[in-house]
Amino acid sequence: MGFGENLRKAFDAFSTLKVVDKESVKTLTKELQRALISADVDIETVLSLSKQLESAALAETIPKGLTRKEHLISLTYDALVDVLGGKTIAAPEKPTSILLVGLFGSGKTTTCAKLAHYYGKRGLRVGIIAADTFRPAAVDQLEQLVKQLPGVQFYSNRNEKEASVVVRQGIVDLMSKGVHTIIVDSAGRSALDPELVDEVKRIHAILKPENVWLVLGGDVGQQAKKQASAFHDAVGVNGVVLTRMDGSAKGGGALSACRATHSPVYFIGMGEKINDLEAFHADRFLSRVMGYGDLKGLLEKMEDLKIENINTENPLEGPFTLQTFYTQLESTRKMGSLSKIAEMLGFGMNIPKHELEVGEEKLDKYKSMMDSMTKQEKRDPEVLTTSRIERIAKGSGTNESDVRDLLKHYRQLKKMMGQFKNLDEEKLKNPKGMQKLMKGFQKPKKIKLR
Ligand SMILES: Nc1nc2c(ncn2[C@@H]2O[C@H](COP(=O)(O)OP(=O)(O)OP(=O)(O)O)[C@@H](O)[C@H]2O)c(=O)[nH]1
Ligand SMILES: [Mg+2]
């Protein structure tokens, strides 16, 4: 089970909490402790967090206008945000150079491509230098990834074994192509040994990078602390990318360990695909984990899609028509799976996957059925009568059950989007709004889709 699911389970205890007394607060903190310890957050942090919560929750006076339960929820939220990163610093918007370092298999090469994609979409001219001359297949791996990134320049030299020489050549080549942001993939080693340190230092002397980011797998948990400080002392790291945060139960430990070493976590890797990279913000991350739904994150992803010029509309604006539904499915297919989007919205755990995934074939079918509908029907499919459903099925070479299936699917998504219509960023930021939100979303399990 991933970190998020463990923590979410602990938060389920909130919805069943009737009275806030000594006993119930203890039960709640026990659940939280369990989740945090299994995420590999260090015991000291966990214990001090629980103590702080217990005493604050049972304090004689609580802020005006809040129930004790609301007070406890907001305390827990604030305390957890603090453990996972506090007020996070945003990644640089226009980096000129990034050197990625890290041990074997931490995710450097994948992250290199993901970052190129991320900054490329934000209008920067990005180039990558393949400076892993240690592992024979490294250049090929990176080249394959770059093929998915039109517009991103790439430099490699398979005949040169000295990484710093490749970097020097790469800088000249990429600069001549008008590249603004250079990202360098370096070789890993099984440990931070003198060989790795020397190599990174030689590259550093040539590139003089503005950013040296340590790439760490979330599965290292608390170990992140040791690695981050060792790399920092040896080669001067000024940021961290945590990968495999999608699958690792220990991601929370890795985050809190980085927090302890004051290494800002700029990005988290949430999958193997090129766009499975997210700018990290502790509060956003946590609100998603807690099941609030990460509206801001979703909108940011949509913004990215607009940059890519894919057909998108904001489903939270205007009426949710059948056309909006279709556009939504189409663009979410491009972003990744719909279940991922649903997870961002805080429903992910509670909706069967098959209800959210839609294949190319099904999408085509939906399209031809919609082509047989009138404008008005597309605007409001609830006007469809049985005889019209028959006609549409005939006209599109499908069955009536297919049409009904489309309508059912539409209603499900409409309902889901309806839940988020009245939210805005301010509500997510302001603690009062957060509590209101919490009231509405404490029990996502009860949202019926059928
Ligand atoms: N699930 C998941 N897998 C990831 C993520 N990032 C990287 N991976 C996978 O982790 C494995 C190692 O990634 P690489 O990018 O090759 O790691 P590396 O640090 O370049 O490895 P070396 O060059 O051998 O040191 C690959 O199978 C990636 O697909 C992530 O965020 N989530
Ligand atoms: Mg690599």
Automatic annotation (TrEMBL):
It is found in: Cytoplasm. GO terms for molecular function: 7S RNA binding; GTP binding; GTPase activity. Keywords: Cytoplasm, GTP-binding, Hydrolase, Nucleotide-binding, Ribonucleoprotein, RNA-binding, Signal recognition particle. GTP binds at residues 102-109, 185-189, 243-246. It catalyses: GTP + H2O = GDP + phosphate + H(+). The gene is srp54. GO terms for cellular component: signal recognition particle. InterPro entries: AAA+_ATPase, P-loop_NTPase, Signal_recog_part_SRP54_M_sf, Signal_recog_particl_SRP54_hlx, Signal_recog_particle_SRP54_M, SRP/SRP_N, SRP54, SRP54_GTPase_dom. Composed of three domains: the N-terminal N domain, which is responsible for interactions with the ribosome, the central G domain, which binds GTP, and the C-terminal M domain, which binds the RNA and the signal sequence of the RNC. The lineage of its organism: Archaea, Candidatus Iainarchaeota, Candidatus Iainarchaeia, Candidatus Iainarchaeales, Candidatus Iainarchaeaceae. Its EC number is 3.6.5.4. Residues 264-277 form the SRP54-type proteins GTP-binding domain. This is Signal recognition particle 54 kDa protein. GO terms for biological process: SRP-dependent cotranslational protein targeting to membrane. Gene3D superfamilies: P-loop containing nucleotide triphosphate hydrolases, Signal recognition particle SRP54, nucleotide-binding domain, Signal recognition particle, SRP54 subunit, M-domain. Part of the signal recognition particle protein translocation system, which is composed of SRP and FtsY. Archaeal SRP consists of a 7S RNA molecule of 300 nucleotides and two protein subunits: SRP54 and SRP19. Belongs to the GTP-binding SRP family. SRP54 subfamily. Residues 431-450 are annotated as: Disordered.
